[in-house]
Amino acid sequence: MSKPVILVTGALTGIGRATALAFAESGARLAVSGRREAEGNALAAELRELGADAVFIQADVRRDDDVRRLVDETVARFGRIDAAVNNAGTEGQPGAIVDQSEETYAATFDTNVLGTLLSMKHELRVMQPQKSGSIVNVSSTYGHEGAAFASVYAGSKHAVEGMTKSAALEGAAAGVRVNAVAPGPTDTGMLDRFTGTSENKAALAARVPLGRIGKTEEVARAIVFLASEAASFVTGQILTVDGGKTAG
Ligand SMILES: NC(=O)c1ccc[n+]([C@@H]2O[C@H](COP(=O)([O-])OP(=O)(O)OC[C@H]3O[C@@H](n4cnc5c(N)ncnc54)[C@H](OP(=O)(O)O)[C@@H]3O)[C@@H](O)[C@H]2O)c1
């Protein structure tokens, strides 16, 4: 079989970057996407140094035209899309519900919810006629539990999980699988912004049964599994990767 073609959004940092590196090491061809051109081209060059055929395509997932072009340019370059990882996301502006506004709602939902919807819309447009493909959305443990002072983020990730299951039902007839990973606290810039101080971060780690914050590579491995043929009968599922945080 030829090398699988993988599309990753929000690939320039954190979990997205670790996912791109993991796919490159597994021999995939990659379209990596993000908003920042210089950093994106640098990532694509790094992936090519690992031996992967990789291209950077700039896109803001909140824009339908950007996502359409991202998907079309990926197909023009590689001929198909075998798996897509919809990882781009934002923590928005965490805070009490009484302090939220139209702007804070849009700042979170436009990327996490509309961005995931637009990504799946264009990916399914390619994968359904192709009669194969695997989509992996990136949710959060806050996609299936509440989060005081992060209600907008939690609401947006609940929406990601609802859309994931619904898209799985729509894609199944064409053999397209749609799943999500739900990371617990994972060591990225987003977690640093969420926690604010090293004391808060340590306190969060102490509440994880495995006693630590997760590594980006650990989430990436779960994403690679869901995207792969090893998960060929798995669709509509949310795979939680949280060191046991939501087990009890
Ligand atoms: N870290 C955690 O503890 C944790 C836990 C659960 C779930 N997650 C989820 O994991 C995913 C990755 O986050 P991360 O932790 O790796 O944090 P991160 O390093 O901040 O990564 C988020 C990435 O998404 C990109 N992005 C944001 N808005 C975008 C937009 N409108 N269009 C295109 N790209 C956009 C960011 O690029 P810019 O630099 O351009 O903003 C950034 O590269 C997110 O969906 C997040 O909600 C993270």
UniProtKB/TrEMBL annotation:
Gene3D superfamilies: NAD(P)-binding Rossmann-like Domain. CDD domains: SDR_c (cd05233). It holds the Pfam family adh_short_C2. PANTHER family: DEHYDROGENASES, SHORT CHAIN, ESTRADIOL 17-BETA-DEHYDROGENASE 8-RELATED. Belongs to the short-chain dehydrogenases/reductases (SDR) family. PROSITE patterns: ADH_SHORT. Keywords: NAD, Oxidoreductase. This is Short-chain dehydrogenase/reductase SDR. InterPro entries: KR_dom (IPR057326), NAD(P)-bd_dom_sf (IPR036291), Sc_DH/Rdtase_CS (IPR020904), SDR_fam (IPR002347). It comes from Caballeronia humi. The keyword Transit peptide does not apply. GO terms for molecular function: oxidoreductase activity. Residues 4-184 form the Ketoreductase domain.
